[in-house]
Design a protein that fits this description.
Blueprint lengths: L14 H6 L25 H5 L1 H7 L4 H14 L5 H13 L5 H10 L5 H12 L5 H12 L9 H12 L2 H14 L5 H13 L3 H10 L5 H13 L3 H13 L6 H14 L2 H13 L6 H13 L3 H10 L5 H13 L3 H10 L5 H13 L3 H13 L6 H14 L2 H13 L6 H13 L3 H10 L5 H13 L3 H13 L6 H9 L1 H4 L1 H4 L3 H21 L1
């Protein structure tokens, strides 16, 4: 299987570097969502149940009680038994009452941890907010004598690489897999596919999938989900049909990918067929699957079907609530959207953004800004998306003072001045009458795209600064930044302003500008 995955061979020389550098750091994306730790850490092993101390440990439900049991094990010498100490690690790493920090301390003091202890500790960290620690723990495992990784170790490590998008470290782990001969293990094989998909290397994942001698449902689910995550819904559905031809029965994970593909394609007919398949085959409507169905019906415009699923859910997540808010707001049912929004048991920034953004899209700027004030009163920290919506509302209302306040808020709280936020600021200042500030914001933007250029060009044209507008337009085109459809519509609206250059004896520049716009439109027509 994996030995046919030739791309990993390029990284084999770097294994020694990976092992030799204990201070190697991993760049991560933070924060990372993590699963709640399971309470299913117990065992029914006869040795545990027959030992009075270990049997008490299996019933332990607090760290304080755990430390008392650990002290007893140290006094009796039971702590030195590899199997007995592995139960301590299991409690700390994966039980709800455990502590990963304390787990690390115990691992340092156990003389010879067995492979189960290493694996369960790695598992705990791989599911935590800091999966980097799982990789560092693996390095410690290799540097200490006594235990050798097994086929259960590597899926956990590859999962950590997937969560952190560490493609190069993932390749190094694959090199270890090849060296130790675990490449034919189906669990390891599937973990490699998942890692590649999660790191965006879909081509390599497909190559490995195609060459695999064994392909189970997990293999198919990983590759299908990879195409869905890459926005290639048609290819995902094609693979789904291939899977069914191989007589593999889809599960809930498969159907989440299928329904998500229908959402991307806005194919209501196929979405309904997928929903019927779920019901007819008795698949469990898990919360993620229900959320996917709601999202599909919302994006396909069937709010009645989306509401029916939402109403039938015994337990709803914030995703469930937010999707319904977005759906009703998208189609103009703001009273219903606000009613659902107000009923939400808890709200983070996402539903607030959904509601504020819905008001903005409907040109209801006053309500958007009023809701933003409510958001501030609730001590919900806004993000860049919130700021873009609020600045757009200020542009709609001509509310310069409120826009200036938002600009100060962005600077005070060090929000990331990305292109979208910068463009929103340019539009706000231009439409609210302060074109000099708009140009200043544009000049200070670290990265500029066609939308930023379009905003400043339109603003200058609107204020009669035709010479500067044309200069920026020429600069944009010289950089190869062609306006997208939204930009072309915006420039089309500004043609009347740009015509002012004809009346200011700038005929050549005016004609040049129009010729450039026409060339861009012809170029886009030829590509399309």
């Amino acid at each position: 299987m994996i030995n046919l995955f030739v791309i990993s061979l390029r990284f084999l020389p770097s294994i020694s570097k990976f092992l030799a550098n204990p201070s190697l750091s991993f760049h991560t994306r933070t924060p990372i969502p993590h699963k709640h730790r399971s309470n299913h850490w117990n065992t029914s092993h006869s040795f545990v149940l027959s030992n009075p101390v270990l049997s008490i440990l299996e019933k332990c439900n607090s760290l304080t009680q755990f430390k008392q049991i650990q002290a007893q094990m140290i006094l009796t010498g039971l702590f030195l038994d590899a199997f007995a100490s592995s139960r301590l690690i299991a409690f700390c790493a994966i039980s709800e009452s455990g502590s990963l920090d304390y787990c690390s301390k115990i691992m340092r003091f156990i003389p010879n941890p067995n492979v189960f202890s290493w694996n369960v500790a790695i598992r705990g960290f791989s599911d935590s907010e800091n999966p980097t620690e799982a990789l560092l723990l693996y390095k410690q495992m290799l540097q200490r004598d006594g235990s050798r990784p097994d086929n259960y170790t590597y899926p956990l490590l590859l999962k950590s690489c997937a969560r952190l998008s560490l493609i190069y470290t993932g390749h190094e782990i694959v090199g270890h897999v090849l060296h130790l001969g675990f490449d034919s293990d189906i669990f390891v094989h599937n973990a490699v596919i998942h890692m590649l998909v999660s790191c965006g290397d879909l081509e390599s994942a497909q190559n490995l999938f195609d060459r695999g001698s064994k392909r189970d449902l997990v293999s198919w689910n990983s590759i299908i989900n990879g195409y869905v995550r890459s926005g290639r819904a048609k290819e995902a559905l094609s693979l789904y049909q291939e899977m069914k031809m191989e007589k593999l029965k889809p599960d809930e994970v498969t159907m989440i990918a299928v329904v998500s593909s229908c959402s991307q394609l806005e194919d209501l007919k196929l979405g309904i067929e997928s929903h019927h398949y779920i019901e007819e085959n008795g698949l469990i409507l898990t919360i993620p699957l229900s959320n996917s169905l709601i999202d599909m019906y919302v994006k396909c415009g069937d709010l009645k079907a989306a509401q029916a699923i939402f109403s039938g859910m015994k337990k709803r997540t914030m995703v469930s609530w937010t999707t319904m808010v977005v759906g009703y707001a998208k189609f103009g049912f703001f009273d219903t959207a606000r009613e659902i929004f107000d009923e939400m048991p808890e709200k983070d920034v996402v539903p607030w953004n959904a509601m504020i953004g819905g008001y903005v899209q409907a040109k209801r700027g006053k309500e958007a800004l009023a809701l933003f004030i409510d958001m501030q009163d609730m001590y919900i920290k806004p993000d860049e998306i919130t700021m873009v919506s609020c600045l757009t509302a200020c542009s709609q209302l001509g509310a310069l003072d409120f826009g200036i306040w938002i600009h100060h808020y962005i600077e005070k709280h060090n929000l990331c001045m990305n292109v979208a936020l910068g463009t929103a600021l340019i539009n706000m200042y231009a439409k609210c009458g302060n074109i000099d500030k708009a140009v200043k914001v544009f000049t200070e933007l670290p990265v500029k795209n066609s939308l930023a250029y379009t905003a400043v060009i339109g603003g200058l044209a609107l204020h009669g600064s035709s010479n500067e507008a044309i200069s920026f337009f020429k600069k944009m085109v010289s950089l190869g930044l062609l306006p997208d459809e939204e930009g072309l519509v915006f420039l089309e609206k500004q043609k009347s302003s740009l015509r002012a250059c004809l009346w200011r004896q700038m005929l050549w520049y005016g004609v040049h500008c129009f010729l450039l716009v026409e060339c861009i439109e012809i170029s886009r027509w030829e590509k399309g």
